[in-house]
Amino acid sequence: MMIKETSLRRDPDLRGELAFLARGCDFVLPSRFKKRLKSFQQTQIQNKPEKKPGTPLPPPATFPSSPQPLSPVPHVNNVVNAPLSINIPRFYFPEGLPDACSNHEQTLSRIETAFMDIEDQKADIYEMGKIAKVCGCPLYWKAPMFRAAGGEMTGFVSAQSFVAMWRKLLNNHHDDASKFICLLAKPSCSSLEQEDFIPLLQDVVDTHPGLTFLKDAPEFHSRYITTVIQRIFYTVNRSWSGKITSTEIRKSNFLQTLALLEEEEDINQITDYFSYEHFYVIYCKFWELDSDHDLYISQADLSRYNDQASSNRIIERIFSGAVTRGKTVQKEGRMSYADFVWFLISEEDKRNPTSIEYWFRCMDVDGDGVLSMYELEYFYEEQCERMEAMGIEPLPFHDLLCQMLDLVKPASDGKITLRDLKRCRMAHIFYDTFFNLEKYLDHEQRDPFAVQKDVENDGPEPCDWDRFAAEEYETLVAEESAQAQFQESSFEDYETEEPASPSEIGNKGNKIVTSSLSEKCGKLQSVDEE
After folding, report:
1. Could you give the angle at which helices 276-289 and 464-489 cross, rounded to 10 degrees?
2. CA–CA gap between residue 326 and residue 237 (Å, rounded)
3. Tens digits of residue pLDDT in 409-434
4. Burial (CB count within 10 angstroms: exposed 0-12, middle 13-18, buried 19+), residue 427
5. Which residues contact 24 (CB under 8 A, 6 or more apart)?
């Protein structure tokens, strides 16, 4: 491309565009360059002075009589090769964008003043809540702050040690996600592992008003904490790495949910991560399957879930290590309670992004990142065998495959990718078709227009997991209430007894649930001691 007008080369923006084009940069589009060139030419025309009448023409240039060799027209590369000084401002801030308006010394002064109101200027973990509020942090950051300032070793935190720790944190970390990871993570670590959350969650169990009834049953605090940790990693750790980074914290709602604990006394209203009712449902489901109560379930135990609704082939894939952590499952053929939390949420909410990834890993037998027609046929064969045993004529695989391809609409013919399943918003129907017979038959009996309406509805409806947990909790509490009332009525006179009101039964719910879990966890504790 030749540019003869030297005035074009004087525009620094245009020169930058030409330099990028010459270097072969993909992000400089020709259309963008044409627009820039056109706007520059229009500006040149507007700035060009108009000729006045009577103005003499410039004299013609005189050339020497002897012919001279014409100098070659300079190529644009001669201009482009000149070094360009382009000042690109910094755009990547892994520790958060620094706030130039923030006054750190003023914050540290307020902290020192708050410590003066504490006896001996030494704060324990409970008084650390006041310090957390002075720092502008949620209440339940107090346990991580206490540990980061060295309070775990001495039992208290002095004003000097805390101010030194907080000054260093303010200078190096500039947003909530970066500060939170710095407080919880191990020294010189920039990510959070599962055990890093234990002190924070133990403080929630000890101090949250919605969990006061757990003080009488400390034997299963660890079960609740394990459940919450697995739910956090299930939702936040989108990379499946087992380590939560500051970027993943920023993209999640975890810090906002943690701040809600301070405002909401009923912890069951916070369905994300911390709900006690959800923990109760998960733990009871695991207890029903764990026949020997050793905190592990076998492949045969897991196959009994929901009356053997899941196929044997998909359960084999779960125990192959495709979606489980550690080598216990592969070597010993046993699934831990932590892995069961992932299975249950994925089974009951197949619309969840993590659930879609969970089952995709299971169905991708060869691990090539796509679901081939052979893999789909492999899982559908068992579904056909089970339907024939029930007296139901299965749909031929070729016809079913046409339905599934119309449902998913994959970008490439003959293979289905994870992106295709996430985009189609019908992943739950797709997965149930190949390995969950009960739900597959339910989908077949539903009105297709109702299914499409559910997909198009983007309102604030509870997710499938929240609906399942609420229904199961009501069923479990009703069963416990009926059993408790039956045991009480066997020792009382039926003629003088009045029926209990629904409010009284509701008030007894937590006591019934706690007593039931205490009995179960007591047995598990004896197993752990052995």
Report:
1. 70
2. 17
3. 999 988 999 999 999 999 999 999 99
4. buried
5. none
